[in-house]
Amino acid sequence: MDVFVTLADHPGHFVLQPWLDMHKLTILMGDMFLYYTRKWKDGCTVCVQKGEVYAAKVGKKWYRVQVKEIPDGESVRIYELDYGKTKVVHSSVFQPLIMEFRQLPFQAVVAQLAGMRGFIPATFSSLFTPKLPPTGVTQWSHEASMLFRKHVEHRPLVAKVESLSDVKGYLWNCRLSVYLVDTSLEDKDIWIHSLMADISAEPSRA
């Protein structure tokens, strides 16, 4: 399937959107902007709850978000359900997400690169005690993660799904394992997992 990668941390975690519905999302974002700009007034807020879905103003745009954490009375950590980004916003920027704006499935799908078993991202090293990855598991170097981001982030690619896991009723609650293919060149296709395997022939250890 054709996809657009909105966020790429490393081969073990990136976020993609189905290309087929990108125009629908663009229309939705415009409709939300018009609706909430007319309706919303500074100081007129809703009482948000962890885990619930709302519309939230981030910058000059309105996004469909899920509340992940409320560390204090003013700060709220949110997850953008269409773009896969986590941000901290003020508690005054929320409005109810009306049914009209819930019809389009949430577009952000979390994925990992298939064909890369045995690797973990460098940022995971602190999760293990002692600070070494499990036997047989190699971590991605910072340089490899940056190279991966350069090749996939904010780019249209083709995704071939290998597996689907952690399904909880909705696509945005699942995790895909996919092969990514760059088809932008006329003479050849670039399989991203092969590219990463080549540059990580001697990856760094934690």
Q: Could you outline the blueprint of secondary structure elements for this entry?
A:
Layout: E1 2-10, E2 13-18, H1 22-39, E3 53-58, E4 61-69, E5 75-80, E6 86-90, E7 94-96, E8 109-113, E9 119-121, E10 138-140, H2 142-152, E11 156-165, E12 175-182, E13 190-191, H3 192-199
Parallel strand pairs: 8-12, 9-10
Antiparallel strand pairs: 1-2, 1-11, 2-8, 3-4, 3-7, 4-5, 5-6, 11-12, 12-13
Protein name: Tudor domain-containing protein
InterPro entries: SNase_OB-fold_sf, Tudor, Tudor_domain_containing
Organism: Takifugu bimaculatus
Account of the 3D structure:
The chain has helices at 22-39, 142-152, 192-199, and strands at 2-10, 13-18, 53-58, 61-69, 75-80, 86-90, 94-96, 109-113, 119-121, 138-140, 156-165, 175-182, 190-191. The chain is elongated. Strand 1 and strand 2 form a beta hairpin. It has a 5-stranded mixed barrel with strand order 1-2-8-12-11. With 206 residues, it is α+β, with helices and mostly antiparallel strands. It contains 3 helices and 13 strands, in the order E-E-H-E-E-E-E-E-E-E-E-H-E-E-E-H. 26% of the residues are buried. The protein folds into 2 domains: 2-19 and 107-200, OB fold (Dihydrolipoamide Acetyltransferase, E2P), CATH 2.40.50; 21-101, SH3 type barrels (Roll).
